[in-house]
Queue: 3 jobs
Job 1
Amino acid sequence: MKKEIRKKMLELRSKIPQDLKIRKDEKIALNFINFLKERHVKSVLLYASFGSEVDTWRIFEYCKKLSIKTAFPKVKEKFLEIYWVKERSELAKGYKSILEPCNAQKAQIDDIEVIAVPGLAFDKNCFRIGYGGGFYDRLLSKKKGLAAGLAYEEQVLDQLPLESHDIKVDLIITDERVINCG
């Protein structure tokens, strides 16, 4: 079931016209930044967006301007390690050609106030389906801060099939709304 949802949502996301995707990315970035500002967040974990994912580079630039400490994940075996990143030049192609920190200072999950979480599908109860590696489920099981799924409105479904290891996010930020499950 999850495999079919992954395939369908990846297709759906990749069919969003580029000009519309840019507008949606801008709305999501602004909603996310407003969320950070309202809570006076000082540290965030972003993912290095690739392909048709919600763009995080605009968010990274905002965070730099607002002096919000920003970390990015790096795949280490079956886990995500996190590192503080000040400039995009501190990232290099890593796991599956996704940009990862290189020569950066290691961060601890306890130091992160808000985690931006990618996904292929989310539901109204804040559960998510990622790419199937379980990296974010393992990371979220150790978090102290809030986890915010970033998604296009098209990626939000009524309900997803769940497994015992699935961990939900605290909220989902889309181009149209914020779904709070905290």
Job 2
Amino acid sequence: MFRQIDETTYASPQIEVADVAEAHAMGIGMIINNRPEDESPDQTPGAEIEAAAKAAGIAYVAIPVTHAGFSMPQVEAMQTALAEAGGKPVLAYCRSGTRSTLLWALAQARSGMATDAIAAHAAGAGYDVGPIMPQLDFLAAQAN
């Protein structure tokens, strides 16, 4: 269920409280929730995931992304969260894992990672960053 994007980042579809134990067993140090509350009636509320994460000693951050797209404050928040993880593995989730992967990609581009490397990492996890490649190129150019 957890797809590895790079050495320390995983993306996932919606997780349940029970999945937090699996994340803990894998050494996940932070869970990032990229799903807006009440997006779907069957989703586990973020507060329940947060409580389970904290009980397991895992940091929790909510950076909700709607289908309206990404904003620079969201990209910056993702960069900050990834930096605050201190090299510990991070699990980001949304409905399918796509928004989490795309937000990770935007944060990496803003940090200066080459866009071909970003695309390769995402593809290795089964995600396509093609739809946001112009934004990735722009952010990477600004970083370098």
Job 3
Amino acid sequence: MQRVCFLLKVRAERLDEYRERHAAVWPEMLQALSETGWHNYSLFLREDGLLVGYLETEDFAAARAGMEATDVNARWQAEMAPFFESLDGARPDAAMKPLTEVFHLA
């Protein structure tokens, strides 16, 4: 099982709305994540907008490709893109650059 962690930055003026959106993620989005291999997926948000994402998956590239192939993900990413800083035209899911794991207590 791969453990994947990534960072993004939510715009300060959109923090409350971002929290609200994630308190009510679309059921079809949740189903797509589960079906494409995203397990134990969590998002942590700091008050300055730093977003830390964590998930476990058998194959991150395959999990990303699986979501890329869904219509619901395209709709979700289009709605979420304005919440983020520094995407340089990329969708939020494409801007997720996994951090290198340097320690894990098994």
